[in-house]
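ok so heres the complex, four chains, lmk if somethin looks off
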Amino acid sequence: MTKVVSIVGRGPAVRGVDPWGISTGRMKQLLSDEERARLAAIASIVRFKKGAEIYHEGDRANAVFNIISGVAKACKASPDNGEHIMAFLFPEDLFGLSEEGKYVNSVKVVTPVTAYQIPVSALRSQLSMDAGLEFGVICKLSHELRQAQRHAFLLARRQALAKLAMFFEMLEQLQVARGEGAAEIYMPMNRSDISEYVGMSLEAVSRAFRSLIKRRIIETRNRWHVKIIDRDTFAKLSAGISLPSPANLRAQSGGNQFPGS
Amino acid sequence: MTKVVSIVGRGPAVRGVDPWGISTGRMKQLLSDEERARLAAIASIVRFKKGAEIYHEGDRANAVFNIISGVAKACKASPDNGEHIMAFLFPEDLFGLSEEGKYVNSVKVVTPVTAYQIPVSALRSQLSMDAGLEFGVICKLSHELRQAQRHAFLLARRQALAKLAMFFEMLEQLQVARGEGAAEIYMPMNRSDISEYVGMSLEAVSRAFRSLIKRRIIETRNRWHVKIIDRDTFAKLSAGISLPSPANLRAQSGGNQFPGS
DNA sequence: CGTTTAATTGAGGAAAGTCAAGTGAAGTGG
DNA sequence: CCACTTCACTTGACTTTCCTCAATTAAACG
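and the predicted structre for the whole thing:
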């Protein structure tokens, strides 16, 4: 696969969909080769190792970043539950938006990250000269807005299983959109990160995982890889239909639901 | 006050902040008079009465809207809890983004709405010709993205009182940003709408309201107007510090907390 | 191979959800 | 203008779910 190489070679890449287009469902590269080259000229490549903090909430926002490889998380300190994760950031994602010149959240590394760092001043002048670039940013922002709304929708769910199912669904969609195939869902983040993203306790996440496994809805190859093996039930779950209580679980594969009868 | 009149007269208005600017905290008009006039030329004015549905999730997205007056809500059907409200839409807000040519949510009227209706095709050609307009859209989208993230943050809260406090805070900030003053918070939506926005049951919202009133943190002039009378405690709440249990409530104003001693 | 970190499991309690009834306010028609 | 209907909100009793705390097991790392 030469995918990553080609991304690195050509300059910043931003994937998304035209919010007004009638198009394909598949996300596509929003910047032309020329635009990417121009951005590359004003960008530098930076590397962050696992656990590093790329920037902190409230820092002066001097640059925006475009991930080449690796995964990061955008988070905000929460008095309630330690830390709230607003989004996971994958290759070709953009981050570093600010409010009044200050970053609105912290970004921390989940998996070693390589990224383009683009100074805002240079980006701004580039933007004002290139309508296509501006349009690319519009598409990307719409996409992130919808993503944030989906996240809010997830958080409004009351059932742990439904939350987790929807979380998998989101990861899977992003993965497919990145063109990485959907046979298995890759989860670079740990249970704690997941719990902070879905708004439950770490223990509740663990129990929900186990419950899904016991019900044979998902399978885990290892900590970082899940596979959905019962699409139907999974779909019901993420659509909000609550499953029968765990009491019936032993009678699982077609067995008598009333063992006493 | 000639505010509303001036908005109506000049064409579509979009308020927000430059996501990279160092600016003032106050939102400002993002479009020039000229841009507004050009948009007005391609827009028509539409009116919707209370309870109407402006468009439905999944409809072909032929137009975007810009509210002149009134309040609407963007919502999505949720199997879990009837309906999920993603955002309340106020004057100068923009709505009608789509995915693959279809609206991603429904928009319903809360308070009679007057709005500009702008055909997407015309908007697109306008956008490609006007970098300033594109930049305005970028600013607005960033603003909405942050708003959606705040909403997600709210939904991740576990305590009903904290959720409600944060809800008031968001309403208040928007109100101030619109230049309407903050003496009292105006809530055009009913308790049910609030419950669907903050992700709790209607009853829980009602109880939280009562609790805040009993604790003398807020006062309600009527159904639609709240006033925060204990800013300190309110701030603690929305910062996530949980309040003493209601048992101590009678001993409220400096009384002995241990009546038995 | 031991140490550290991450994940799981259990028991008990608190918070919010649900169901059902009651109160109050707004709007309608006589 | 007032009785009446309706809708919105409130309150209570009970149940469910998840959170908290604490202990245990499993996996990564040097």
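quick notes: The first strand of chain A starts at residue 15 and ends at 16. thats all i got rn
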